[in-house]
């Protein structure tokens, strides 16, 4: 391990990204760009109701329509087993997964897929969808988590029963599960507190907001080989899910990942990929299925709305003695809300001896939730970090000083069990406190400053990399991780560092599932960490093989060959020296091609911390909140490519700002989303924001050769609470519901 090494030649530099030219010139191919001979076009019929039984489906008129080549419904799917499988970022019930692809007996949200058509043009497919006759028995929807938890609430699933603390309830419920974490004695801790703050918080449903809609093209070859071209965060995950849904051999499925126009967790679950495959099998032709923007909003997974209650106590000198949290998260139509990660992260920035956390996974008549950047943690932190700010205020302690008094350190135990290894929590708070932003004056009327911290545990999982050495001194790096945030570059740079070559001498390729070893999803802040680790191992193998070639060339023992800074040298007898590039030119004379591979499943991902500082101005007449200045401090462990680390921090902060101030699904009483377009779903643009000042702290992660920590998740965790705290500083009102939109602020101020 090389975590203590301070000087690198490639790591820490800012080379131009390897895929940059293709993307800025428009040559890069995204999922919707894919074409092939004989291509048919697929479209999906979706439910107009949020909750209804399907009485009957008649597809005869659609099948008879000129140009229609095939129609599929849930009856065309193999019968799914009622069992749980780990098929990506979290385990899923196969019956629920299949029912979400095409509804069988009930539709559970407006936009739920019911049937699909393949035709010679997209317009014919769309027209044919309107000819499918579906008879529904409309049922009352349940649209809010607390309402869904009531004993007399309409039930989404007749067979769903609450599992809690190892026990399963006798009666059906909308509460899928209850988890609890406890550390120490919370009652004793609260008894020792001089001050206690308790508040309730509500967050709305929010979409990831990626620009590119979902897409999939599928083709069954004559030999039964199924190939799927798509934009996805995990080609192997698509292969696994499709194999399970279609009950088709995984060895006969190849997934080709196209370039991806954003994901943030929302392109891990499959929606139309199995549908495209079903239509391709039925028609004998390749079929492309695309979503429009309304389909994306109404038919794919947003992050959950939630109800959070936080109670914390502290002594007069600022030491937190106890913390309690109640987290009820909406799962959407099927179980699987990220309440587990929320419970893991909510108090993780602090060293607290007495903690109890209860989490509830609750189904409602909305689309099944999907991951969105640190899933669950932003909802939780909105509550905990607001209460921390209020504690600091009541104790008259600077909010960052309060975090330093209570900050998590190496050796502290989280309430859910793990003990922190080397972490950078304190360092991010110290950097924020010393930053010119925090020390700048902020005394104007209705201007306020807020701070908040956040945590994400990061993950490892499996990754594979193969390196082929070229005779001109370059290498081809083959990987299976979808590149969303510049990971081609960050992975290539780690291989280049090992081999002492420039990053530009690495040619990285993201390939299909038949062309590289198993690689898990691009998610959970794992890619630069885990796939980079695999690239490091593959490069180490190449280095050893090249040492053997140099030894053969010089007729010396391998132990007498050194390698440093891209140069091989002999240290026994006559002095010899040759560069990596020059030795590559002699591979044919020393034994032929050199190939290295690395496959890892690392367990030392290392959690990441961030502390954000924000200044806002509140217009008391309109309720509008303007973000004046924003500084995001984050521990990256080791910044492989600082520009991309800064970009991840800035992007996460901006998404958090949108979540804080504007973004939410707006539903009417019937369960219809009334703002299912980018025109009405209000995301921030560059006109709404200042430049985000990204400050990188480097506390090397001992679980990685270069000290890498994942950086993509944690920057979205602090913004909501930081902005809420800034609004309080500006107008003296604690906002506890997201988004903190103008109408909510005006209402809180008594203006409406």
3D structure, described in words:
The protein is α+β, with helices and mostly antiparallel strands and 752 residues long. The chain has three domains: 20-28 and 460-600, Aldehyde oxidase/xanthine dehydrogenase, molybdopterin binding domain (Aldehyde Oxidoreductase, domain 4, 2-Layer Sandwich); 34-139 and 211-262 and 267-299, Aldehyde oxidase/xanthine dehydrogenase, a/b hammerhead (Aldehyde Oxidoreductase, domain 3), CATH 3.90.1170.50; 306-458 and 606-748, Aldehyde Oxidoreductase, domain 4, CATH 3.30.365. Helix content is 27%, strand content 26%. The chain is built from 21 helices and 30 strands. The strands form seven sheets. It has a seven-stranded mixed beta sheet with strand order 3-7-1-16-13-14-15, sandwiched between helices. Helix 19 links the parallel strand 29 and strand 30.
Give a summary of the structure in a few sentences.
With 752 residues, the protein is of the alpha+beta class.
């Amino acid at each position: 391990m090389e975590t203590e090494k301070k000087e690198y030649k490639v790591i820490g530099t800012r080379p131009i990204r390897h895929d940059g030219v293709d993307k800025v010139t428009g040559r890069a191919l995204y999922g919707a760009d894919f074409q092939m001979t004989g291509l048919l076009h697929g479209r999906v019929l979706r439910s107009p109701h949020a909750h209804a039984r399907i009485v009957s489906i008649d597809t005869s008129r659609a099948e008879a329509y000129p140009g229609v080549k095939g129609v599929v419904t849930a009856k065309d799917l193999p019968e799914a087993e009622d069992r749980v499988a780990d098929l990506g970022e979290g385990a899923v019930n196969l019956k629920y997964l299949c029912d979400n692809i095409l509804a069988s007996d009930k539709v559970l949200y407006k936009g739920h897929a019911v049937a699909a058509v393949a035709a010679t043009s997209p317009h014919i497919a769309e027209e044919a969808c309107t000819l499918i006759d579906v008879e529904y028995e409309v049922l009352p929807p349940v649209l809010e988590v607390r309402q869904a938890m009531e004993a007399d609430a309409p039930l989404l699933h007749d067979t769903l029963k609450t599992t809690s603390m190892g026990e399963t309830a006798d009666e059906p419920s909308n509460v899928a599960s209850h988890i609890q974490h406890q550390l120490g004695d919370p009652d004793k801790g609260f008894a020792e507190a001089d001050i206690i703050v308790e508040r309730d918080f509500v967050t709305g449903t929010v979409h990831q907001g990626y620009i590119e809609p979902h897409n999939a093209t599928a083709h069954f070859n004559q030999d039964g080989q199924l190939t799927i071209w798509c934009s996805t965060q995990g080609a192997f995950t698509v292969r696994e899910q499709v194999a399970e849904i279609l009950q088709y051999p995984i060895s006969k499925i190849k997934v080709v990942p196209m370039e991806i126009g954003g994901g943030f967790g929302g392109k891990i679950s499959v929606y139309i990929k199995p549908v495209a495959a079903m239509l391709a099998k039925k028609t004998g032709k390749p079929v492309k299925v695309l979503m429009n923007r309304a389909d994306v909003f109404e038919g794919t997974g947003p992050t959950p709305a939630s109800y959070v209650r936080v109670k914390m106590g502290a002594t007069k000198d600022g030491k937190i003695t106890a913390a309690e949290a109640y987290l009820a998260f909406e799962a959407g139509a099927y179980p699987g809300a990220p309440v587990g990660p929320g419970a893991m992260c909510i108090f993780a920035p602090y060293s607290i001896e007495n903690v109890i956390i209860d989490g509830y996974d609750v189904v409602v008549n909305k689309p099944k939730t999907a991951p969105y950047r640190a899933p669950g943690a932003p909802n939780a932190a909105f509550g905990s970090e607001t209460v921390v700010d209020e504690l600091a205020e009541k104790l008259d302690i600077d909010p960052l000083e309060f975090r330093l008094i209570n900050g998590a350190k190496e050796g502290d135990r989280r309430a859910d069990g793990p003990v922190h290894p080397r972490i950078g929590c304190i360092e991010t708070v110290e950097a924020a406190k010393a930053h010119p932003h925090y020390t700048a004056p902020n005394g104007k009327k209705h201007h306020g400053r807020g701070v908040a911290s956040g945590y994400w545990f990061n993950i490892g999982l499996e990754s594979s990399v193969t390196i082929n050495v070229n005779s001109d001194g370059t290498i081809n790096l083959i990987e299976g991780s979808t590149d969303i945030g510049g990971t081609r570059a960050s992975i290539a740079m780690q291989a280049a560092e090992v081999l002492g070559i420039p990053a530009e001498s690495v040619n990285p390729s993201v390939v299909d599932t038949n062309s590289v070893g198993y690689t898990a999803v691009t998610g959970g802040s794992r890619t630069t960490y885990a796939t980079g680790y695999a690239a490091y191992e593959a490069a180490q193998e190449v280095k050893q093989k090249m040492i053997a070639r140099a030894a053969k060339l010089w007729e010396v023992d391998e132990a007498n060959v050194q390698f440093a800074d891209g140069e091989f040298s002999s240290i026994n007898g006559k002095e010899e020296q040759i560069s990596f590039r020059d030795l590559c030119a002699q591979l044919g004379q020393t034994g032929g091609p050199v190939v290295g591979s690395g496959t890892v499943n690392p367990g030392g991902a290392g959690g990441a911390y961030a502390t954000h500082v924000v200044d806002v101005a509140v217009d008391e007449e309109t309720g509008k909140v303007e973000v004046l200045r924003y500084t995001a401090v984050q521990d990256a462990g080791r910044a492989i490519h600082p520009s991309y680390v800064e970009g991840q921090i800035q992007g996460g902060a901006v998404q958090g700002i949108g979540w804080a101030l504007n973004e939410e699904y707006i539903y009417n009483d019937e369960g219809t989303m009334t703002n299912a377009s980018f025109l009405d779903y209000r995301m921030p643009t560059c006109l709404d924001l200042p430049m985000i000042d990204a400050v990188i702290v480097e506390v090397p992660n001992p679980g990685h050769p270069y000290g890498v920590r994942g950086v993509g998740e944690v920057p979205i965790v602090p913004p909501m609470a930081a902005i809420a705290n800034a609004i309080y500083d500006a107008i003296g009102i604690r906002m506890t519901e997201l988004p903190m939109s103008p109408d909510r602020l005006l209402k809180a101020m008594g203006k409406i």
